[in-house]
Amino acid sequence: MEDPDNRTEVVLLACGSFNPITNMHLRLFELARDHLQETGKYKVVKGIVSPVGDAYLKKSLISARHRVAMARLATENSDWLEVDDWESSQAEWQETIKVLRYRPGPGIPPPLLQESHVVAVSSTPSGLPQLKMLCGTDTLESFAVPNLWKPEDIQEIISNHGMVCVTRLGNEAQKFIYESDTLWKHKENIDLVEEWITNDISATKIRRALRRGQSIRYLVPDSVQSYIKQHNLYTAETEDQNAGVVLAPLQRYAREPVKN
User: Mind listing the pLDDT tens digit for each residue in 45-86?
Assistant: First the structure.
């Protein structure tokens, strides 16, 4: 183990729909923190949940107002997780790299950290936290979907920030990295975290259970379950939200051809 006083402070940022936030989403943060800290190189000081905005236009995506509220309920008892609503409050869909780049004006505490400053890995002065993107294996796989990500954005995410990817048993994260020249080039900046205690909870399965009147207790925090019931969220009608609408990145990048 390295000297704890010389460990690099890290902030984990997870972007996604959180539709709704589940216990698995929360577990990703815990697994990632354990992994990084067990290396002896890092001290994870904060985890940030950043729900995507409504303009992402994903099928079944309910209002960001509700998704942010549920995320705040889910993290209210954590001493290191918090929710940031900057991304979700934007009128237009924001690329993940813009969320990672986000900085307010001079002298204004960054909303993502309030009391800390986060800068890119490539220019991180000693003593300042390093911002890493937290995700699941599905994000690695999505990098290969045409027009879903800009190659230059993937390059910047991995080279300037780094990724912590929690993998489920049976997933082929290493294969995704091997098959991508960009990921392979910066593989040292991708931490793969094996999820040994199998957990197959997904927001899609949660919504399906709700539509069928089935219990979701112990799959989401009790406060989130109560909020869903109170506001009658996730019905057959909401599942058809944005049905037939092209996802925002696919619309944007189809108009602006992706560079090779």
Answer: 999 999 999 999 999 999 999 999 999 999 999 999 999 999
Classified as helix, coil or strand, 246 is: coil
CA distance 32 to 53: 25
Phi–psi pair at 248, nearest 5 degrees: -50, -50
pLDDT (tens digit per residue) in 104-152: 433 334 555 444 444 444 444 445 789 999 999 889 889 999 999 999 9
Instruction: Return the closest-CA partner of residue 233 out of 30, 92, 10, 73.
Output: 73
Query: What are the strands of the beta sheet with 163-168, ordered from one edge?
Result: 81-83, 42-51, 8-16, 130-136, 163-168, 190-195
DSSP state of 147: T
Instruction: Tell me the pTM.
Output: 0.88
**DSSP notation for 22-90:** -HHHHHHHHHHHHHHHHTTSEEEEEEEEEEPPGGG--TT---HHHHHHHHHHHHTT-SSEEE--TTTT-
8 A C-beta contact, residue 83 and residue 49 = yes
Q: Got the DSSP string for 155-183?
A: HHIIIII-EEEEEETT--HHHHHHH-HHH
In 3D space, the residue among 214, 212, 203, 124 whose CA is nearest the CA of residue 160 turns out to be 124
